[in-house]
Write a structure and sequence with these properties.
Blueprint: H1 7-20, E1 28-31, H2 35-51, E2 56-59, H3 62-70, E3 74-75, H4 78-81, E4 86-89, E5 93-94, E6 100-101, H5 108-116, E7 121-126, E8 139-143, H6 148-161, E9 168-171, E10 173-174, E11 177-178, E12 186-191, H7 198-206, E13 211-214, E14 216-217, E15 223-227, E16 232-237, E17 243-247, H8 254-257
Parallel strand pairs: 1-2, 1-4, 2-3, 4-7, 7-15
Antiparallel strand pairs: 5-6, 6-14, 8-12, 8-13, 9-12, 10-11, 15-16, 16-17
Helix pairs in contact: 1-2, 2-3
Bound molecules: ribose-5-phosphate.
Ribose-5-phosphate binds near residues 34, 36, 90, 104 and 111.
């Protein structure tokens, strides 16, 4: 590993590298989106090229699809795969029950569809993503562009009725224009501060006509692999309820970075 990699990237790398050990030949694997998931895709690409790993990957965004193809992974659609053995993805926050906030990178809709269609979901994260309560990270909600301001007003009224503390809602922008997702929708970010009941909020949000999906992943993630900048790794397993710690040594590996 290059010495100039920042601690945060080392943390993301070791989590991704550890997660790649759960991938076996013959698997159909959901490939997440974001800077942490990109490390995973690179690790898997190296295993495909150097170790003969045979997998088919279902990407959760156009940018992950492009990276996966670049590193040599056989990319198929979710409908071709139909069902996945495993999805590995990043997260913006995870709580002690392994519930998540996702969508900081705008890919929450495809990510949730893919993760839900998987036997298992593993989240890879640096330690900063761990929280006691979800909500400090603004909750992304994907909305259809038609009538988005009306949907935003409805969201605002609903949060008020629920007595949610933070109620600021912002439209995600890409420069001067609204950010547009891979599915052609907009994203509004809910600045809530603290989410008391994630399951209830997720259900209420998805009942609104203009809402396509929200970034709360409740009871979807099975395991979180937390990476640290010094190479330590923690495994949080929702079934076993255990925390295992081990350590990954940094090694120089030019092949891994060949495609960056
Ligand atoms: O939409 C993006 C995804 O939910 C990402 O997995 C999430 O935002 C975490 O991204 P990163 O690994 O870059 O922090």
């Amino acid at each position: 590993m290059p010495a100039d990699l920042s601690p945060i990237d080392k943390a993301k790398f070791v989590a991704a590298k550890r997660a790649s050990e759960f991938v076996e030949s013959g698997m159909r694997v959901g490939l997440g989106t974001g800077s942490t998931a990109a490390w995973l895709v690179r690790c898997l690409g190296e295993m495909v090229r150097e170790e003969g790993l045979r997998i088919r990957g279902v990407p959760t965004s156009a940018r992950t699809a492009a990276l996966a193809r670049d590193v040599g992974i056989d990319v198929i659609s979710l409908d071709e795969a139909k069902w996945l053995d495993l999805t590995i993805d990043g997260a913006d926050e995870f709580d002690p029950e392994l519930n998540l906030i996702k969508g900081g990178g705008g890919a929450l809709l495809q990510e949730k569809i893919v993760a839900t269609a998987s036997d298992q979901m593993i989240v890879i994260a640096d330690a900063a993503k761990e929280v006691a309560n979800l909500g400090a990270f603004p909750l992304p909600v994907e909305v259809v562009p038609f009538g988005w301001q009306t949907t935003q007003a409805l969201l605002s009224e609903t949060l008020e009725a629920m007595d949610v503390m933070g109620r600021e809602i912002t439209l995600r922008m890409n420069g001067e224009r609204p950010y547009v997702t891979d599915e052609g929708n907009y994203i509004v970010d809910l600045h809530l501060g603290r989410i008391g009941n994630a399951r209830q909020l997720a259900l209420i949000l998805n009942q609104m006509p203009g809402v396509v999906e929200n970034g709360l992943f409740v009871d979807i993630c099975d395991r979180v692999i937390v990476g640290h900048g010094d190479g330590r790794i923690e495994l949080r397993d929702i079934n076993a309820g255990t925390v295992t710690e081990d350590r990954m040594e940094f090694v120089e590996d030019d092949n891994l970075f060949r495609d960056l």
